[in-house]
TrEMBL record:
It comes from the Bacteria. GO terms for molecular function: zinc ion transmembrane transporter activity. The keyword Manganese does not apply. Belongs to the cation diffusion facilitator (CDF) transporter (TC 2.A.4) family. SLC30A subfamily. This is Cation transporter. It comes from Alkanindiges illinoisensis. Its main location: membrane.
């Protein structure tokens, strides 16, 4: 590392945790879903409807998802300490990943149960099935209304919203199935609708799990382009090169950036302020750490070696850099 001209810039910008502003709505949604869950389980057992019981399974995951989301929000409020210097924000992402895995398990279980039911159809009380499903749809629509505002801001809330959305579709499917059974007597329709509900949930669950894992693996946020950031920084007066550029998200809507700027001759403080303003206004990045250096440092050479000579061993190259 060159010692001739080094400077560090740290800018801390506090954000409200994205899920916290929606905690009251989550509490209301939890109350609605947990109350109806008991009704739907009893109704499914009495009517012998697999579609209704599968919808109750979704409602159970809704309740669990909402409870986990609320718990994660409470934990995420804890301040940073000596062991968790970034705080506890990642609990919201862990909750989202857990809810995605839970949805996968439920979806596959529903498909399995439907296959067994197709082989041995059971008598179904379609009228009771219809009445309970209508109430369930209304409950889910109200819960969706409570959560829709927060699902774009927080993966944690998005996980809970997807749970409720899938259950609303399940209730709608049960209604359609009940009407078909009442008119035609085709009992197999109940199982086919349960399968359709399961397969509808799977791709949306994968998106939630993928986004959660990207954050947990320190991946670049989907709305961030490293090439664009690097190009914009190199357009600043005095910046000759940008290297060791990293962008990651601590939680939903809370991204961080670190980078080295090669600044041969101009005032580094001016460059740092210009870079901070550019990153905040053009790329919505607020937690930034920049290091200015007069010459290209060894870290840049190491990164070049890493990307261009990945097939050579470290001993052959003679140098390296580990993160």
């Amino acid at each position: 590392m060159n010692d001739s001209n080094k400077s560090h810039h740290n800018h801390n910008h506090s954000h409200a945790i994205s899920g916290q502003s929606h905690s009251k709505r989550l509490w209301w949604a939890l109350g609605l879903t947990s109350s109806f869950l008991l009704i739907e389980i009893i109704g499914g057992l009495l009517t012998q409807s697999l579609a209704l019981l599968s919808d109750a399974a979704h409602m159970f995951t809704d309740t669990a998802a909402l409870a986990i989301a609320l718990a994660a929000i409470q934990i995420a409020k804890r301040p940073a300490d000596q062991k968790r210097t970034f705080g506890y924000h990642r609990f919201e992402i862990l909750a989202a990943a857990f809810n995605a895995i839970l949805l996968f398990i439920v979806a596959f279980y529903i498909v399995y149960e439907a296959w067994l039911r197709i082989q041995q159809p059971a008598q179904i009380q379609s009228m009771g099935m219809l009445g309970i499903a209508v109430i369930g749809l209304l409950v889910n629509l109200l819960a969706m209304y409570l959560l829709v505002g927060g699902q774009k801001d927080s993966l944690n809330v998005k996980g809970a919203y997807l749970e409720v959305l899938s259950d609303a579709l399940g209730s709608l499917g049960v209604i359609v199935g009940a009407l078909i059974i009442m008119v035609t007597g085709w009992l197999w329709v109940d199982s086919m609708i349960a399968v359709a509900i399961g397969f509808w949930v799977l791709p949306r669950t994968w998106v939630l799990l993928r986004d959660s894992l990207n954050i947990l693996l320190e991946g670049v946020p989907a709305n961030v382009s490293l090439d664009k950031i690097s190009a914009d920084l190199q357009q600043l007066d005095g910046v000759a090169e940008v290297h060791d550029l990293h962008v990651w998200a601590l939680t939903s809507g809370k991204s961080s950036l670190t980078a080295h700027l090669v600044v041969p001759s101009v005032d580094t403080q001016h460059v740092l302020e210009s870079a901070r303003t550019l990153l905040a206004q053009r790329h919505q990045l607020h937690h930034i750490t920049l290091q200015c250096e007069r010459y290209r440092c060894a870290m840049a050479d190491a990164n070049t070696h890493q990307f261009l000579q990945t097939n050579q061993s470290a001993s052959q190259a003679g140098h390296g850099h580990s993160h």
